[in-house]
């Protein structure tokens, strides 16, 4: 009986210990998998935090750009006020001239009445045949000549004033046209600034949400790991389970850089064209749109461009000098049809005004330029916003 009991006890212990080892093995494997997931989530969180740091730097650049653009708007508003004051003054001058013309018209009307005698207009014929004597004839001729000379002087002054009024109106009209163009440009600038702010804030909020999700995932995994460890310790007091000894291959997910934009692989035979279309690659995801930017060494060093400033700079990298405004660029080079456009050609878009945006075609239906919402970036002009605003103007500078 004693031998049988001992065998039973040994068998029971062996089975129990085997079960405990099985449980321990299962828990250890689960803990290892969870630890691997924790490492992966931490890697993703680190990547997101790095991206957010980059976005924060970009936001700082954008905020500085917005401040600079706001200063330009204030300066433009001050200039508009000056123009308006000058226009008001011109209108006063025009009113004074018109009053003189009106008064002179009344005088001429009075003279016309004085020319009429007995219901008929006095003429040299009347002077000759109506005079009673030679002396009377001489007197009449003298009076008529004096009146005609006075009327002629008045008419000449009248015409001079009328010409002055016309010139003043032209001047006022030009001022008003310039003023309206400036207002349109200001409205476009304000829209671009608002777009910059909205996109940056949306991107920052998205990254913060992703970070929070990663933190929550890590916390949940750590809690699961702790529960398994507690269960293992409660079930197997004799076996020490050290999660730190468990190593696993990281399953870190590669997080793509949202600012990375693929460049077209279109073959370009000309070295100069290749230089132009690739010059801005280093600024992709590391630049900011600034109205009037790209025209100083400081702006270029800090990636601060507007659309025409960027295009001018890109061509300068290939030794080609072009203007730095869309109005100049749209008349630079040789016009080509859309069907014939090739990498290196300038393409134009009707944004806040006619030919309000310009970029450099790189092939594959894409162009590179300084966009208001992204800074220097490659955009698709075959669909979406840029397809709608592309106006068909294509200019070729390098042949």
How would you sum up this structure, described in words?
The chain is elongated, with a radius of gyration of 42 Å. The protein contains eight helices and ten strands. Helix 1 (2-115) runs antiparallel to helix 3 and helix 2 (124-130) packs antiparallel against helix 3. A six-stranded antiparallel β-sheet has the order 5-10-6-7-8-9. It has a two-stranded antiparallel sheet with strand order 1-2. A two-stranded parallel sheet has the order 3-4. By secondary structure, the chain is an alpha+beta fold. It folds into two domains: 2-235, Helix Hairpins (Orthogonal Bundle), CATH 1.10.287; 271-396, endopeptidase fold (from Nostoc punctiforme). 64% of the residues lie in helices and 10% in strands.
Mean pLDDT: 75
Q: What is the string of helix and strand elements?
A: HEEHHHEHEHHEEEEEHE
Into which percent range does the helicity of residues fall?
55-70%
Q: What is the 3D form?
A: elongated
Low-confidence stretches: 117-121, 239-270
Features:
Helix Hairpins, 399 residues, six-stranded antiparallel sheet, alpha+beta, endopeptidase fold (from Nostoc punctiforme), elongated
The gist of it:
The chain has two domains: 2-235, Orthogonal Bundle (Helix Hairpins), CATH 1.10.287; 271-396, endopeptidase fold (from Nostoc punctiforme) (Alpha-Beta Complex).
């Amino acid at each position: 009986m004693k031998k049988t009991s001992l065998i039973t006890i040994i068998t029971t212990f062996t089975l129990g210990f085997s079960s405990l080892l099985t449980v321990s093995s299962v828990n250890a494997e689960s803990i290892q998998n969870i630890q691997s997931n924790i490492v992966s989530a931490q890697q993703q969180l680190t990547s997101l935090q790095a991206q957010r740091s980059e976005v924060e730097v970009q936001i700082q650049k954008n905020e500085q750009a917005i401040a600079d653009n706001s200063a330009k708007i204030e300066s433009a508003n001050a200039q508009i006020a000056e123009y308006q004051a000058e226009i008001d003054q011109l209108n006063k001058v025009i009113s004074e001239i018109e009053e003189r013309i009106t008064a002179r018209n009344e005088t001429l009307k009075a003279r016309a009445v004085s020319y009429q005698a007995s219901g008929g207009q006095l003429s040299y014929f009347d002077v000759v045949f109506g005079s009673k004597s030679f002396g009377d004839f001489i007197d009449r001729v003298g009076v008529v000549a004096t009146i005609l000379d006075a009327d002629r002087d008045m008419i000449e002054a009248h015409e001079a004033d009328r010409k002055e009024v016309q010139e003043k109106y032209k001047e006022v009209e030009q001022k008003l046209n310039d003023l309206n163009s400036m207002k349109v440009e200001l409205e476009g600038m304000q829209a671009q600034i608002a777009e910059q702010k909205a996109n940056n804030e949306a991107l920052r909020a998205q990254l913060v949400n992703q970070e929070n999700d990663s933190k929550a995932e890590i916390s949940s995994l750590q809690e699961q790991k702790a529960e398994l460890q507690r269960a293992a310790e409660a079930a197997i007091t004799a076996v020490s389970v050290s999660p730190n000894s468990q190593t696993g291959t990281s399953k870190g997910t590669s997080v793509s850089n949202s600012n990375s934009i693929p460049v077209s692989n279109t073959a370009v035979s000309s070295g100069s064209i290749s230089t132009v279309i690739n010059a801005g690659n280093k600024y992709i995801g590391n630049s900011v749109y600034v109205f009037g930017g790209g025209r100083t060494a400081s702006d270029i060093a800090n990636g601060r461009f507007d659309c025409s400033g960027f295009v001018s700079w890109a061509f300068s990298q290939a030794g080609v000098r072009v203007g730095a405004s869309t109005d100049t660029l749209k008349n630079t080079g040789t016009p080509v049809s859309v069907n014939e456009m090739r990498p290196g050609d300038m393409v134009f878009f009707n944004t806040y005004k006619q030919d309000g945006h310009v970029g450099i075609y790189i092939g594959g239906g894409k162009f590179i330029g300084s966009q208001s919402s992204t800074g220097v970036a490659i955009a698709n002009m075959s669909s979406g916003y840029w397809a709608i605003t592309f106006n068909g103007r294509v200019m070729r500078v390098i042949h």
